[in-house]
């Protein structure tokens, strides 16, 4: 797949100490431990990345080539997912303009395709020999698929109780799947301990600079789908939180290119009640979140006891006058049924969590009936058969 235009990337910058790094090499974290963020010549990007130019570009995330990293894209057609106006559901909740950005329609069935497309593109360009990442489910499938497309071996490390569909797709794509007892944080430790001697380049969440670049395109797409504007509120299910961080970054870039002013959607982070480190830190006024003990939730993508980018998530929510909310497993399962029966969207529990948050915030008056609200369904329900059996109260066959 050829790209639409030339990238304007100039360097990488540490999100903590702000040290600059060259982008023409494989990078993980800064020496200070901070995640690296890609920076661009946005003045140059604005000359060719225009609404008129976008009209003739392919309907994938690579249409925003000027503000994505360089290299021949490793693509499976990710991006430009539909924005579905859900009137019936909005009527039940009390929000007149309620929409769902359905990321479950990406390749491999989740928003993780965006990040892995960008990450694998750069890993291939700069000579990675093998890739590795921990996963709670969808990230592993996406990495396995894009590594297969690129012809690069990959290792996926997942908790032993990861949904079966996620494990099967990783194996189908040819990945080396390793299951361990524990949480995604334990899987992350395994990758960190083995990567040097086994020759892996680590593409864990925020431990390389480009997964966030793929995910930020969700924000660019919203701008297009809202006809050059942005919604009043965005509700996003938060595990590692890279999608939320990426959209905040996208809005900053848009402003610098003159697409928008200083206005921002209010960003809402929703987490599982059984694993809510970001919500807890937000409520305490903290800038970062300690690891959550005994993390447990049916939404595997939200079972992240410690997000590397916690400080970026919290800063993004506060900078946009946003909010943090929890949803219990039972609330998510009920919302799964509601989202499917009233909007025709077969969602992952993580996506259903945004329906729970919308209902709570509308009932409290924090969201006004006339405001435009976008919920992100980050994954397809077909990969969560165990959760849906509970949601529908179906018997488990022997």
What does this structure look like?
Helices cover 39% and strands 16% of the residues. The protein has 398 residues and is of the alpha/beta class. The chain has a domain at 83-109 and 210-391: Rossmann fold (3-Layer(aba) Sandwich). It has a six-stranded mixed beta sheet with strand order 4-5-13-10-11-12, sandwiched between helices. A hairpin with a 5-residue loop joins strand 1 (9-14) and strand 2 (20-21).
Largest sheet: 6 strands, mixed
CATH architecture of the domain at 83-109 and 210-391: 3-Layer(aba) Sandwich
Widest β-sheet, arrangement of strands: 4-5-13-10-11-12
Give me the secondary-structure category: alpha/beta
As a percent range, the share of strand residues is 15-25%
**What name does the CATH topology of the domain at 83-109 and 210-391 carry?**
Rossmann fold
Order of helices and strands: EEEHHEHEHEHEHEHEHEHEHHEHHEH
CATH class (first level) name of the domain at 83-109 and 210-391: Alpha Beta
What is the overall silhouette?
Answer: globular
Span between termini: 45 Å
* Overall pLDDT: 95
Ranges where pLDDT stays below 50 over 5 or more residues in a row are none
| Tally of separate helices | 14
Q: Summarize the amount of helix as a percent range.
A: 25-40%
Strand segment tally: 13
């Amino acid at each position: 797949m050829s790209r639409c235009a030339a990238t304007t990337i100039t360097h990488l910058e540490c999100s903590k100490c702000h040290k600059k790094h060259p982008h023409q090499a494989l990078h993980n974290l800064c020496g200070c431990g901070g995640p690296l963020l890609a920076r661009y010549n946005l003045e140059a990007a604005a000359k060719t990345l225009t609404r008129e130019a976008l009209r003739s570009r392919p309907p994938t995330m690579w249409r925003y080539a000027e503000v994505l990293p360089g290299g021949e894209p490793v693509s499976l057609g990710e991006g430009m997912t539909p924005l579905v106006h859900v009137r019936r559901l909005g009527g039940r909740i009390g929000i007149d303009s309620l929409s769902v950005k359905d990321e479950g329609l990406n390749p491999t069935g989740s928003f993780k395709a965006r990040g892995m497309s960008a990450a694998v593109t750069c890993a291939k360009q700069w000579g990675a020999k093998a890739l590795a990442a921990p996963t709670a489910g969808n990230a592993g499938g996406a990495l396995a698929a894009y590594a297969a497309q690129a012809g690069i071996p990959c290792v996926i490390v997942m908790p032993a109780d990861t949904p079966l569909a996620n494990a099967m797709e990783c194996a189908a794509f040819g990945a080396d799947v390793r299951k361990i007892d524990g949480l995604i944080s334990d899987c992350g430790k395994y990758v960190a301990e083995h990567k040097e001697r086994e020759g892996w380049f680590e593409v864990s969440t925020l431990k390389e600079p480009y997964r966030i670049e793929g995910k930020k395109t969700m924000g660019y797409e919203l701008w297009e789908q809202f006809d050059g504007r942005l919604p009043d509120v965005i509700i996003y299910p938060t595990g590692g939180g890279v999608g939320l961080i990426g959209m905040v970054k996208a809005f900053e870039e848009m402003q610098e290119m003159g697409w928008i002013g200083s206005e921002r959607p209010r960003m809402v982070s929703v987490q599982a009640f059984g694993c809510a480190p970001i919500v807890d830190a937000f409520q305490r006024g903290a800038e970062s979140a300690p690891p959550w003990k005994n993390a447990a939730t049916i939404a595997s993508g939200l079972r992240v006891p410690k997000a590397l980018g916690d400080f970026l998530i919290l800063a993004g929510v506060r900078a946009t006058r946003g909010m943090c909310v929890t949803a219990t497993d039972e609330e998510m399962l009920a919302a799964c049924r509601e989202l499917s029966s009233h909007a025709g969207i077969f969602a992952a529990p993580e996506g259903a969590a945004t329906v729970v948050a919308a209902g709570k915030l509308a009932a409290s008056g924090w969201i006004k009936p006339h405001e435009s609200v976008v919920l992100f369904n980050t994954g397809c329900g077909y990969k969560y058969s165990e959760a849906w059996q509970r949601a529908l109260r179906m018997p488990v066959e022997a």
